[in-house]
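Give me the fold.
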Amino acid sequence: MSFPTQRPRRLRGNPTLRRLARETRIAPQDLIYPLFVRDAIEQPQPIESMPGQVQHTLESLTREAETALKLGVRSLVLFGIPGGKDPQGSGAWIDDGIVQRALRQLRDAFGSDALLIADLCLCEYTDHGHCGVLDGERVDNDRTLEIYQRIATSQAAAGADVIAPSGMMDGQVAAIRSALDQAGFTDRLRRQVRIGVLWAVPRGRRLRTTLRRPARLPNGCRKRARGRQGGPDRCRRRCGHGHGEARPGVPRRDSCGRRVD
C-alpha cells in the first residue's frame, strides 16, 4: 500500500518522540501576568466580568506579584484605575498616579527579578472614556500623541521596563519611542510592546473592548505594519481576543496568515 506517503503519526509514537518533535513549549517565564491596581480602595475588589480576578490595592498587588514570582511568572503588566477622572486623563501621567506608585513599589520590593510592563492608554483615565483627548466630538490624534509621550516618560521614570501602548492613535509607537529616547531611557527600556491586532470573539471575556472586525482585516494588517514601522523593540505575535497574554489563535488563523505575509 503506497498511501499515505507521509506518516507524521510516527513522530507521536511515544512520549519521548512527542517531546522531541514538539514545536511549542510554554513555561512560566513565557507568560505575562495582567494585574489591575485601583486607587482609593482599602480592600481588593472582585471584577465581576473576570471571575477570580480583582482590582488590587497597592498592598495586595505586591503580595500577588510575590506569589507570581515564586511560581516563575516574572513578567507583570499593570493596568491602573484612578480615583478620579478628567477630560485630559491627567491621572495617567502624574507622578503620584496609581500606576506610577505601583511601579515604584514593585521595583523596590523585587528589584530586577520582575519585568514591569505598564499599559499606556487614556480610556481608563478620561471622564469620557475615549483613549484620546477630544476636540469637540472628535478625538484629537496628534494632541493625544503628546500626552502619550508624557505618560511613557512618567512610567519609565517610575520603573517600567516596558511601555505597552494599547491606544488606537496613529503614530503612537514612533512618538513614544522618540520621547523615551529624548528623556534618556534609550538603554533601560529595551523593549516596547505594540498591542497588536485584536478581535472580539465569543471565547472567554476581554480585559478591554478594543475591536478589529474581521471584515476590516486588510486595514488591521496595515495598522500593524505601520506600528512596526514606528520602531517598536518588540511586537507580540498573537491572535485572539482582548488584552490577555494567553490566547488561542485558532479563531483567527486567516489573520495570522495575513500577518505572516
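The longest helix spans residues 141-158.
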